[in-house]
Amino acid sequence: MIGKSPNLGLPRKVVACYLLFCLIAICWLALGVWFTSHSVLNSHSVNSCLARLGKTASAIEISYLRHGKQDFAKLLEQAKAEGRFAYCSIAGPDGTYWAHTNAQMQGEPVVEPTGCLLRWGSVTGIRFTDNVGQSLGEYQVPLTASTEPIGTLRIAVIEPNVWNTFGEVARHSPLTILIPLALVGLGAVMISRLTSSVADIDSQLRKIAELPPGTEVSLAPLPATDAATLGWNHLASSLKDLRNHSTSPGLDDRLTKAVASRKQSELAEILHNLSDGIAVTDPEGRITFANRAIAALLGTEAEEGGLEGADLADCFTRDLPELSHCTLFDPSMANRPVVSEVQRGSEQAERVLRVARQPLQDATLKGQVWSLRDVTQQKLADKMREQFIDTATHELRTPLSNIKAYAEMLATCDTIEVEQQKEFCNTINSEVTRLARFVDDLLSISSMEVGSISAERQKVETSRLFEEVLSKVQPLMQQKDLDFEVHLPEKMQELQLDKDKIVAVLVNLLGNAAKYTPTGGHVALKVNLDESKLHIAVEDSGVGISSEELPMVFEKFFRSSDERVQAESGTGLGLSLAREVVRMHGGDILVESTLNQGSNFLVTIPLE
């Protein structure tokens, strides 16, 4: 036995486990250092700067269209904080700084730095060294509002160097080092717990390995101290029982059947937990397997296994009679994959089910696999997308067609009178205004949904806010001879609101009430102010909204199919815009309506 390695009592797998922990720790350490340094360099990369530059430019252009230059400073400070820039500025066409994160530069002439010029499409840049020896990169992009240049956005970043990178890595190094140390310690603890019992097991196995072939093997039980020793003792007991019953017939068959039964049970459980209905039929169409989902989709209360043995064609045609005439049950298509869709349910709860049949291709398996899927949400999404495209196309095409027609008449007709020319120009101006309002509404909703626009809350005299609303809607009420009822609190305190946006919401709600209420009808504005919330109700005795369409009134471009609603012009964006504004204030807007009896819109805005 000279030269044989000593038995240290430590299994190789345990040693390998510990080495694996050490390897993971080393990899983590290397990955942490690499990731930290990479993130430092990447945070100031050109792509990151260009992405932030484009996003900030879009926000500034939108703000300029809404509020002019009053929000420039706020947007620049926000961009500087998010992008960790050295400074941000907006240079106007007059050659001065309209806005600058350094307040002392506000209104000063723009001084172009000297350095290495850069260009990426419409973005230009220059790399230079400032008066304190700091290496900076300044990137510029032109700003336009409705095709009109309004200046240039400039951002400057500190070019990364070795010392900056080393400082960031050192700041994150404690986390990078502690986690590998924890992994090494965890590996040591696991080895210490495994060593005592695993060493005894390893010793017995080594002795068994040294026995000559054909020698009877016996396993000695160990003190039950952990899971390994419990498993070892169970194995020793099983080996003893197997030896005692080795003459029992059919042992291999029973073991094979037990393994096969367990695998089949696991596969069946997986299929039962699928959301799609799955069924397997034999060549005669009898169900040999059906999961729980297919019974639920068919609307039956069959228990697990209750559908097995039934004729699938009978089950489908009984619950989905529309399938009786499709190709799913055509004998000539038995060896081909077939997919069919069917609608079921009432108009209020209509569902679309997709049924697919696939023949089994394995020579040892005969029959077909069926799947049943609820595709109602997919169909609704397709329908809404088509409605969006149709509405947007109509709202864009109609004013453009009118503008083109009148412009061609002005350009080609030499005998048009001055008054008629004015009429044509007024029509063109009206259509342009309509088109701009549609684009502005769509842009406002999109900006609110992505968070580019927020509510600018300021102290507002509530009484003056409602006076402004009433002055705008009163002509509409008088034009249709409506009974306009207004209930305002006697005393209204100042509130923190975005006045312009709230006025737009109320004008929109009251305008809709006047538009869809017949002449001589009733419209009411009721305002209630408690300690925590502002409650606003807009009621009318108009055409109302059906229960089927009520859940969709706040969706973009939705317009009721009622002929009385279709007769009025509109884009279907007003209520969607109103909901976004109310949500920006932390509130909610609800609607209650009965067809042919009127509607009631309820707006609730928290005071804080």
* CATH H-level homologous superfamily name of the largest domain: Histidine kinase-like ATPase, C-terminal domain
Strand order of the largest sheet: 2-1-6-5-4-3
Low-pLDDT runs of 5+ residues are 1-10, 40-44
Count of DSSP H/I helices = 14
Task: Give the arrangement of secondary structure elements.
Blueprint: H1 12-43, H2 46-67, H3 72-83, E1 87-91, E2 97-100, E3 116-120, E4 123-129, E5 135-145, E6 148-158, H4 162-209, H5 227-244, H6 251-272, E7 277-281, E8 287-290, H7 292-298, H8 312-319, E9 338-344, E10 351-359, E11 368-374, H9 376-412, H10 418-450, E12 458-461, H11 462-479, E13 483-487, E14 494-497, H12 499-515, E15 522-529, E16 533-540, H13 563-566, H14 574-584, E17 588-594, E18 598-606
Parallel strand pairs: 13-15
Antiparallel strand pairs: 1-2, 1-6, 3-4, 4-5, 5-6, 7-8, 7-11, 9-10, 10-11, 12-14, 15-16, 16-18, 17-18
Q: What attributes characterize this protein structure?
A:
608 residues, alpha+beta, Beta-Lactamase, Helix Hairpins, 6-stranded antiparallel β-sheet, 14 helices
